[in-house]
Amino acid sequence: MFEITNYSYIRYIHSFEWAILTFYILLILGMAFFYQTLQIRKDPIYRFYVKGVFIKLASSVAFCVIYIYYYNGGDTVSYYETARSLTNLMVHDFGNYLTVITQKATLENYFLFDQSTGYPWPYMYYDSQTFFVAKVMAPILLIAFKSYLVSSVILSWISFFGMWKLFTTICRYYPGIETKLSFALLFLPSALFWGSGILKDTMTFSAVCWYIYAFERLLAGNNRIRALLILAVASYFLISIKPYILIALFPGSMIWFFHARISRVQVKLIKYGAIPFIYAMAFVIGFGVLSALGNSLGKFSVDRMLETASVTQKDLKQDYYQGSSFDIGDFEPTIAGVAGKAPAAMVVGMFRPFIWEARNVVMLASGLENLIFLLLALAISYRIITGPGRFFKLLFENPLILFMFSYSVIFSILVGMSTSNFGALVRFKLPFLSIFVCVLIVIYEFYRKESALAKMAQTLR
Fold first, then answer.
1. 315 FRET partner, CA 20 to 30 A, in 19, 31, 230, 246?
2. How far, CA to CA in Å, does 132 sit from each of 86, 108, 124, 251?
3. Rounded to whole angstroms, how far apart are CA atoms 410 and 346?
4. 266: DSSP letter
């Protein structure tokens, strides 16, 4: 198998990897084409399937090439090298491998590795969240012949299934705009790039997609045991890698749950009168569950989250981030301190870096995307200002959009409050960016169709 000594960054992609990659890509695309052929007879939405898989795989290859030849390594390579040491340990001594992946990281367990297996990077080994990524990658490396390129592509392919499930779910609710929704969920350039490598973000975005899909299936009453299982696994991945994502998801989930029940009530007085009750119950249950998960959430627990955000924000704007820092101002880790910075943080999370803040090609691409999102949001904002009632009616009559909107707002504030570095920001936005763009598209289409109907009615008069 292809071997590289640990603690030496990969300088190039070996020809062996390209040969194995060709085989895997042909195999994956062959299976995708066969699956699309079977499914498209039942549902025309599968016309996007092969194209989505191909673009996802191509994005992974581009990610690897850019990180090896442009960035000369990075966290993605460190994840790979740490996972490779686990894979070697799995092959050499499966008992010690089970010990390492099931027990806490200790110095004693660290020395279960040796020169024949290579050693995991210490800063990843002793961080449970980063080491979890390496644990997930170890079996993938085994079937990828321990190739960085091939294992990245396989992970990217696996993550695509969650994106596809969410795409089909949203299209089922909002038919007729599948092409536009495919741009948001399957073909958004920054989401494809940052969600196609060996990074936390690839796994967490896929977990978010599976979470929303399973929650919707649970509410719809379709195979609830399977939905609960998927929901549990997705939540476990989020808690294990980035717990604050679950914190952003949970309040909207509770609102969606209660709102879906109330929306079935036919009497408008009862239905709209219950709205304050919905939000109160969502807050109480959400706060209670997140508090109960305190130990699992660690530094992102309810009582420590604000302090964590403040400390992280101050760190990410230090000089050693080489000029890519920005500053929304320091804030106290209190409710009042967060409330004062929430609007600025939300703008950061949703729309920055602005195009004039780009310092390299990758940042420029993100800036161009953000400019489009900003213009779309401004067009929608104008409609909201001139008729706020219609906007809130749209949200309350569409629990899925209400959920995605609340998740986008909460997550953008969390990211904006805890990030002061554009390099980190473009990656941290991934778990909510595509969902936020979906919200913009659905709301924009709602107003566009409303205007078209109004013009048609005026013409008929």
1. 246
2. 11, 19, 9, 26
3. 8
4. -
